Amino acid sequence: MTKIKPYKDSDLGKKEQVTKMFDTISGDYDGLNRVISFGIDIKWRKKVVKLVKETNPETILDIATGTGDLAINLAETNATKIIGLDISSGMLEIGKEKIKKKALDSKIDMVLGDSENMPFEDNSFDAITVAFGVRNFETLENGLKEIYRVLKPNGTFVILETSIPTKTPYKQGYKFYTKNILPLIGKLFSKDRSAYKYLCESASVFPYGEALNNILRKIGFINVEDFPQTFGVATIYKSSK
């Protein structure tokens, strides 16, 4: 897999660049995401919550939680503790404010940390989720191995990630949108032009569908399934340990 970085003229590693990028765009992120996805990402997250809810977990870890949208949605489950983990302090600060306003402080903890080296014991969580975060891992397999480590046996792992439509005319429409429209929106509304260019480019080279299913199986996950969303512009992956 080609390693795409946000800032091509920087000597920093991908992890450091991604941290810097999300700290920079944290204030724009929520509003811009609604514009870019036409609000459909809200519907996708609800489907993730439904899949997690079916397993009735007590403890949930939401990795690359960002500003906490999915962690907040997961509060609808019967879980007694939800942890949102992210490498960007800027994103977490916004997430903490949102959680406070919704009076969910006692249920959701926001933790600063690296998804490829997590500060949790083995077999700690009944369910783990990642929404639009796995493609930002420095090394995909390292991140997935860490997730496998901290997930309890029989625990559920759900990924929501961008993918590329394979059928005409959706494939052509997606290519035009990501190449021409999305970077323009990012340029108009965000103070970091490189960020949304990176988000497009990283999505275009990231493995999806059966390619990602096979990587999950290689790590050791079982019962691997994928559910394409909205003509294939995103995919939900469900597996277990």
Word description of this protein:
The protein is α/β, with parallel strands linked by helices and 241 residues long. The protein is 45% helix and 21% strand. The protein contains eight helices and seven strands. It has helices at residues 14-36, 40-53, 69-73, 89-101, 140-150, 170-189, 193-205, 210-219; strands at 59-63, 81-86, 108-112, 125-131, 151-162, 222-229, 234-240. It has a seven-stranded mixed beta sheet, with helices on both faces. β1 (59-63), α3 and β2 (81-86) form a beta-alpha-beta unit. α1 (14-36) crosses α4. The radius of gyration is 17 Å and the shape is globular. The two termini are 25 Å apart. The mean pLDDT is 91. GO terms for molecular function: 2-methoxy-6-polyprenyl-1,4-benzoquinol methyltransferase activity; demethylmenaquinone methyltransferase activity. Methyltransferase required for the conversion of demethylmenaquinol (DMKH2) to menaquinol (MKH2). Belongs to the class I-like SAM-binding methyltransferase superfamily. MenG/UbiE family. It is an enzyme of class 2 (transferase). Its EC number is 2.1.1.163.
Output the radius of gyration: 17 Å
Strand order of the largest sheet: 3-2-1-4-5-7-6
Report, as a whole number of angstroms, the end-to-end distance.
25 Å
Largest sheet: 7 strands, mixed
Broad shape: globular
Estimate the helix proportion, in percent: 40-55%
The total strand number stands at: 7
Low-confidence stretches: none
**Alpha-beta content class:** alpha/beta
SS summary, helix count: 8
